[in-house]
Amino acid sequence: MTDAQVLSQRRRLLCGAAALSVLGAVPAWAADRKIKPGATAALIVVDVQNCFIDGGTLPVKGGAEVVPVINKLADAFTNIVVTQDWHTPGHASFASTHGGKKPFESIKLGYGQQVLWPDHCVQGTDDAALSKDLRLPTAQLIIRKGFHKDMDSYSAFEEADHKTATGLAGYLKARGIRTVFVTGLATDFCVAWTAMDARKAGFETYVIEDATRAIDLNGSLAAAWKQMQAKGVKRIKSSDIA
């Protein structure tokens, strides 16, 4: 093979990797680039609370492992938003609220299908507190969600009726934010819903895969990644951030 042919083949490979990276099929480093978050980017840290890590009422396997990854990522961001599940006692999403129902069953409520969960993240309890090991010096805002007794809220942008806004989109836009990077718990529920709603609100959106962990309920993780990709959410690793 001639030098010209080798060079041509190398260019084709790099172009192919870059195209796949845009689609979220391969990490950004495969296209020989790093992402440098600037003043128009924000890190969203979803529900890294005691209830979702070891010892909590609804632990996500490996949930505590996201904390050091997120802490390291925080150094690259001047804008950070944190979300916090904040349920009332007897919340509509709790299996204990519905006679005869068990955790992880699903029922239909006024706003659609609802997975029923163990009682978790009840307002004012240590279970609902953010992990004490989080180190987010530039965090500016905490969005509390799920505080309406009769409605759940996975997304940081909208409650489960897909109508009631949290105000996060307006806040970010007022700050000049155009790109968001989503991390936290759990990948297949609150992270995914937040990422997809971020896209709907017009933000370029990345999910940092190794800064999340999933519940993976009946194939929910694979389904969530498929749905996110279809909405234009990009899937990257923390090592893709400069």
Task: Give an overview in words.
The protein has 242 residues and is α/β, with parallel strands linked by helices. It has one domain: 3-Layer(aba) Sandwich (Rossmann fold). Helix content is 25%, strand content 19%. It contains five helices and eight strands. Helix 4 (187-200) packs parallel to helix 5. It starts with a helix and ends in a 6-residue tail after the last strand. Residues 3-11 and 13-26 have low confidence and may be disordered.
| Low-confidence parts | 3-11, 13-26
Strand portion, in percent?
Answer: 15-25%
Figure out the total of helices: 5
Question: Going by CATH, what is the homologous superfamily?
Answer: Isochorismatase-like
How many strands?
A: 8
Structural class: alpha/beta
**CATH fold-type name:** Rossmann fold
Name of the top-level CATH class: Alpha Beta
**CATH second-level architecture:** 3-Layer(aba) Sandwich
Using the alpha-carbon principal axes, give the shape: globular
* Mean pLDDT over all positions: 90
Helix content: 25-40%
